[in-house]
Amino acid sequence: MIKYRLVYFNAKRRAELIRFIFAYAGQEYEDFRIEESQWPIYKHRTLFGKLPVLEISDDIESIQLAQSLSIARYLAEKFNLVGVNEIEKARADMISEQLSDILEIFYTIKNEKNTELRAEKERFFYKETLPFYASMFERLFEIQKTLHVAGNTLTYADLAFVVFWDHFGEKKKKFFELCVVSKVMYEHVNNLPAIVEWKNMRPMTIF
Ligand SMILES: N[C@@H](CCC(=O)N[C@@H](CS)C(=O)NCC(=O)O)C(=O)O
C-alpha cells in the first residue's frame, strides 16, 4: 500500500494546496510539521534543501518529491483533478503558476526584516499588485464563462484559487465586491464538505 508523508513547517503557505488535494480526494497521509529549530538538520535530508517535500513509500521503496506545484500536479493527476482535456489541463497549470507567482511576491514582502519597509511594500501590494491581478483573473473568468477556473470540471487550480485568496484573510472581501465571478468560484470550492471539514480540523496558523 502506498503511504504519503508531507513534510513542511507548521504553516499553510506552500503546503496548503497539497493538503487541500489530499482532503478533497479523501486520501490518508501524514501531515508532518517540523519545528523551525529542527530545520537545519532536516534541510540536508531534502532533495533541494527546501520544503515542502512529499515522501511516497510502498513495501519496496521510498521516494521524495520536491517543489510544491510539482507535488500538487502529481497528486492532482492521481486523483483526477487535472482537467478532462488538453486546454483544461493547460489552463489549470497556467492559473496555478500565476497564483504562485503572485504569492511569491507576497512571501518576499512578508519576509522583509525592516518593519517600515515591509509595511510600505504591503500597502503597495494591496493597493496596486493584488487589484491588478484580481481584475485580470476576473476578466479571464468573464470571457471563459465556465463553472470552474480552468473549465467545466473542478481541477487543482480551483483548490489553488481558494488557498490563494485565504492568504489575504478579511481583505479578500473588498476584492470580491468587484470580482463577483471570482467570488462565486471561490465560494463554490470553499463550501465543499471536504474543504469545510479540513478547514475545521487543521491546526491554527497565521498563514
Ligand atoms: N519553489 C519552491 C519553494 C520552496 C521554498 O522556498 N520553501 C521554503 C518554505 S515556504 C523553505 O524551504 N525555506 C527554508 C529554507 O530555504 O531554508 C516550492 O514551491 O516548493
Structure description:
There is one protein chain. This protein is an alpha+beta fold. The protein has 2 domains: 3-79 and 194-201, Glutaredoxin; 86-191, Glutathione S-transferase Yfyf (Class Pi), Chain A, domain 2 (Up-down Bundle). It contains 9 helices and 4 strands. The chain has helices spanning 16-25, 39-43, 68-78, 86-110, 115-144, 156-166, 172-178, 180-190, 193-201, and strands at 3-9, 30-34, 53-57, 62-66. It has a 4-stranded mixed beta sheet with strand order 2-1-3-4. The mean pLDDT is 97. Bound molecules: glutathione. Glutathione is lined by residues 13-14, 43, 50-52, 67-69.
Element layout with pairings:
Elements: E1 3-9, H1 16-25, E2 30-34, H2 39-43, E3 53-57, E4 62-66, H3 68-78, H4 86-110, H5 115-144, H6 156-166, H7 172-178, H8 180-190, H9 193-201
Parallel strand pairs: 1-2
Antiparallel strand pairs: 1-3, 3-4
Bound molecules: glutathione.
